[in-house]
Specification:
This protein is an alpha+beta fold and 215 residues long. It has helices at residues 2-26, 88-95, 97-102, 104-117, 133-143, 178-190, 192-204; strands at residues 29-38, 41-50, 55-60, 63-68, 71-77, 121-129, 153-159, 165-176. Strands 5-4-3-2-1-8-6-7 form an 8-stranded mixed sheet, with helices on one face. Helix 4 (104-117) packs antiparallel against helix 6 (178-190). Helices cover 42% and strands 31% of the residues. It contains 7 helices and 8 strands.
Length: 215
């Protein structure tokens, strides 16, 4: 009798876990975020909701709040990171982007697929200038392929070749089904070209290790 009772409890627990997992996979997450950079300072807020607002997270004014059925049940202050001066490693990472540009057109189809899976809508208004005009020109090369990503991205970009400037305003909307995104990511892992591109991106953006050539 005891063994049958334990087995019944375990089966019920497995059934409940299965239902919870199915609900988690089938109900969407919704993400809304607005923010940017103004005079060197970051500003923004973001909301993540699951099951049409049943459970949600909100980040605003340096704090993260948890809501259930629209009622706040917890709030945690998020420590802000201090601004750091550009280091030699960061400069090397930026220069390694020249190598990444050679592979640029290959990663666009995967970004388009991911954006479609996420029902992504992104609008960016930016005025950018780096410390060296050649770096600004490199940045322009890097951003050119963005025009090929599709209608989900609205980009308004102005480059300043005279002064160092970072002014960005952006808003993002997305709807995520975990099961759909998981299938897409699994497809990337089994795709040889996608794995090579991910490995290459990690290599060229890591100054500590030499860039490896991937054919």
């Amino acid at each position: 009798m005891v063994g049958e009772l334990v087995l019944t409890v375990l089966l019920w627990l497995l059934a409940v876990l299965g239902v919870l997992l199915a609900v988690l996979l089938l109900l969407p997450f919704r993400l809304r975020a607005d923010g940017g950079v103004h005079e060197g300072q970051f500003f923004g807020d973001a909301r993540l909701q699951w099951a049409w607002g049943l459970v949600g997270l909100r980040y605003e004014q340096g704090a993260l709040a948890v809501r259930v059925l629209g009622v706040r049940v917890g709030r945690v202050r998020v420590a802000s990171s201090k601004r750091r001066k550009p280091s030699k490693k960061n400069k090397a990472k930026r220069m390694n982007l020249r190598e990444w540009l050679k592979k640029g057109p290959n990663y666009l189809p995967w970004i388009r697929r991911l954006a479609k899976a996420l029902k992504l809508e992104l609008a960016i208004d930016a005025e950018l200038g780096l410390d060296d005009p050649s770096h600004t020109a490199l940045l322009q090369q890097l951003l050119q392929p963005l025009s090929l990503l599709g209608p989900w991205l609205r980009l308004r970009l102005r480059l300043d070749y005279l002064d160092e400037k970072i002014e960005i305003a952006a808003n993002l909307r997305a709807r995520v089904w975990i099961i759909q995104v998981s299938m897409l990511l699994m497809g990337m892992l089994v795709n040889t070209q996608a794995r090579r591109l991910l490995t290459y991106f990690r290599a060229v953006t890591t100054p500590e290790s030499p860039v490896r050539r991937i054919s």
